[in-house]
Amino acid sequence: MSLLISIEIPGKYDYHTFMGSPLPASILPRVATAAIKRALRTAPVVVLLGARQTGKTTLVRSLPSLAGRPYLTLDDFDLRMQAEADPESVVRRAPTLVLDEVQRSRDLLIAVKRVVDDDPARTPGRFVLTGSANLLMTERVSETLAGRAVYVTLWPFTRRERLGLGRTGVWSELLSAPFGRWRDLLAADAGPEEDWRAAARLGGLPVPACGLPDDEARALWFSGYVQTYLERDLQALRAVENLADFRRLMRAACLRIGGLLNQTEMGRDVGIVQPQVHRFLNLMEASYQAIRLPAFAVNRTRRLIKAPKLYWSDTALALFLAGETEPRGTHLENLVLMDLLAWRDVQPRRPEVLYWRTATGIEVDFVIETPRRVLPIEVKAAARVGPSDAKGLEAFLDEYPDLADGALLLHGGAETFPLTRRVLAVPWWRVC
């Protein structure tokens, strides 16, 4: 069966591709759509953020509720110059607007704020803004629209989005069900089996994941993607004087996926001083490339001082940047994390996604924390797992018996079975 997918082309137009040929097509549903629709009913400004080429423009231009709205992109040089000279003239062009790549204009959001504040009715959904940088972390942008905007993040395709199912994994269902019901729940929701190595090579960026036929084509696409990111996106955020240093640090980060972040060590390995490493990592995170995962602790202050773990937004891009052809087990961790983040960011009451590690090195890869329940998750790439693989999970359950009654071990095999009395072993593709 042929797959029709939406492809976002840099510039003013969206195309759909069918086996490499531009054709009109239905767009693969995105889990963020419901969050955007909810935000349009409640806030004057809706801001859709995410890494370059995750499908932001395609998504907002495909929503029926936004059909007919003027669409303006700051990628257009003339518009960007107008926004720099007279930003208010841009935002007052029409009663409602879609403004793309807003991080490219320093003062545009100030003008949006003025227009919103001048509206006594605070009309919901008046402005829809998109951007390839986290406006809350960007020095280039001087206004965050606090109290006026709802922010929605569009992460790369989850596995189930890529398959056309328009959803994330079954995290909400697992959190709502007692441990004893998990096995039946997962059996009822079983999706198609998938090798995690193949999934890691595909990644979740729509064009290479769904529209390009082979590794060579994807490598060429990623080369162009990185070049655009380095030469245009970074300069729009803040000048990077030495792009070679920045690229070396990206490679170092991608080689350390799933590891504890040690900025001093990274800087020593690539020949960059620690303050520069810190600055570059902040830029990678602000542009939704690098992800720093905080640590779990009951004392929330301690979470702030513990070293985070480092991941990348797209496994296929990470493999390209690292110069690797064979995915490692940590790439499966990365796949699971991206599904968790896509799920987390559309929840009305946003849960926490963290990791847990003791002073002696006992670790749990991920911990979902909600007000009512905590779910610890370990990820093992091996097709066969045994009780010894649940050591970290059992330690966590012993430490926090009032927070969690069971745990998940996701693995690269095909069988679901009780690993211990409190740990269920599940193929990763049954959950994600």
Describe this structure in words.
With 432 residues, this protein is α/β, with parallel strands linked by helices. The chain contains 19 helices and 16 strands. The chain is globular, with a radius of gyration of 22 Å. The chain has a six-stranded mixed beta sheet, with helices on both faces. A five-stranded parallel beta sheet has the order 5-6-7-4-8, with helices on one face. A three-stranded antiparallel beta sheet has the order 1-2-3. Helix 12 (243-255) packs across helix 16 and helix 13 (263-270) crosses helix 14 (274-286). It has helices at 32-40, 56-62, 77-85, 87-91, 108-117, 159-162, 171-176, 182-188, 196-202, 206-211, 215-237, 243-255, 263-270, 274-286, 300-305, 315-322, 329-344, 391-399, 428-431; strands at 5-8, 14-18, 21-22, 45-49, 71-73, 97-100, 127-131, 149-153, 290-293, 309-312, 352-357, 363-369, 374-380, 407-411, 417-418, 423-427. The protein has two domains: 5-153, 3-Layer(aba) Sandwich (Rossmann fold), CATH 3.40.50; 160-205 and 238-431, no CATH class.
